[in-house]
Specification:
It contains three helices and no strands. It is mainly α. The chain starts with a helix and ends with a helix.
């Protein structure tokens, strides 16, 4: 089983059994969605570019 499949199974279990949203389940597992990760990368890059000015 790949890591992605394992995460999906864990997310499904948290959503079904505890009534969490997908985002809440990911937060509980310490998993960031790809969109959140991209946003964080862009913010870091913008901050670094601001330091060079």
């Amino acid at each position: 089983m790949t890591e992605n499949e394992t995460h999906l199974m864990a997310i499904d279990m948290l959503c079904c059994h505890l009534g969490l949203s997908k985002e809440e389940a990911q937060k509980q597992l310490g998993i960031q969605s790809q969109t959140d990760l991209q946003t964080q990368i862009m913010e870091t890059q913008e901050s670094l570019m601001g330091l060079k000015r």
